[in-house]
Amino acid sequence: PFEVLVIGGGPAGAAAAIYAARKGIRTGVVAERFGGQVLDTMGIENFISVSHTEGPKLAAQLEQHVRDYEVDIMNLQTASALIPGEAGGLHEVKLASGASLKAKTIILSTGARWREMGAPGEDLYRNKGVAYCPHCDGPLYKGKRTAVIGGGNSGVEAAIDLAGIVAHVTLIEYDSQLRADAVLQAKLRSMPNVTIITSALTTEVLGDGEKVTGLQYKDRTTEELHQVDLEGIFVQIGLVPNTEWLQGPLALSGRGEIEIDSHGATNLPGVFAAGDVTTVPYKQIIVAMGEGTKAALSAFDYLIRS
Ligand code: FAD
């Protein structure tokens, strides 16, 4: 059996694997797609100490760094069930392939995925005007016109953030009113370069073949179609944690995120979690790496005590 078995090969899982392997303990990583969300990212400019890199490059470097150590990487494998053991005993992880792995400690780092609008053009113009992370891509739209899709807390926060950087922000909400906290709504309404449109369904992302040039939305009260000319669209309709396979005794939040304490421990002894799949605030690469590190050191601490 493994001493540490990491499920997920994104920044959190890679950091956890490296920290565990450096303790000289038997470490494995199961990943559906090594690199995780980083593979889908174009420019990365907030990975501190690296001014600019690209997702696929960082993902390859993550994998190379893990391979510097004796880590058993099981790529293109999907975990389908976690069967927790007794305290101090072995946990079992079942894979979709039918295989089963056993480990003294488990680190869950299966990440999350942005909920997509599903509108025509969204896929085509991803990273070419369609963005999901204002902390990451906001500065690329300095002086340009953008829209934020979604009027919950994350959408309104994104709109406030962007309004300080870009020329103009159009916030589009499906419901007849914004769902964000009142204090955020008040802040947004006080900003001069923001337009708020409610009862609106984004029906299409418009572009010139190379990049986004606008969007089309339907006014849900009149059924009329309208067009907004702009350069960027930030989709903020939810981040979904990859925990569908983890139903059972593991404590999840109302949003399906794995609940962890400040050491990355879950409610199950010997089971730790890190990164976007958890309740940790701020879903970023550098945060996920720090969280993976914490979870691995906590797993090691658990091992030397049991
Ligand atoms: P993930 O990267 O999501 O990795 C999860 C891993 O788990 C993957 O290997 C996945 O294949 C695997 N997995 C999932 N389910 C299973 C399963 N059942 N069995 C086995 N494996 C499984 N952050 C920044 O800091 N800067 C940026 O510029 C930036 N830009 C972004 C741009 C885009 C388009 C996106 C989508 C995200 C961006 N982010 C950025 C956010 C950043 O990518 C995430 O915060 C980070 O990747 C989270 O790391 P993670 O390891 O927790 O999860």
UniProtKB/TrEMBL annotation:
Record-listed NAD(+) binding positions: 145-159
Disulfide-linked positions: 133-136
Stretches assigned to the FAD/NAD(P)-binding domain: 3-292
Binding-site residues, FAD: 3-18, 266-276
Molecular function via GO: flavin adenine dinucleotide binding; NAD binding; NADH-dependent peroxiredoxin activity; oxidoreductase activity, acting on a sulfur group of donors, NAD(P) as acceptor
Co-factor remark: Binds 1 FAD per subunit.
Subunit structure: Homodimer.
Record's protein name: Thioredoxin reductase
Annotated source species: Sphingorhabdus lacus
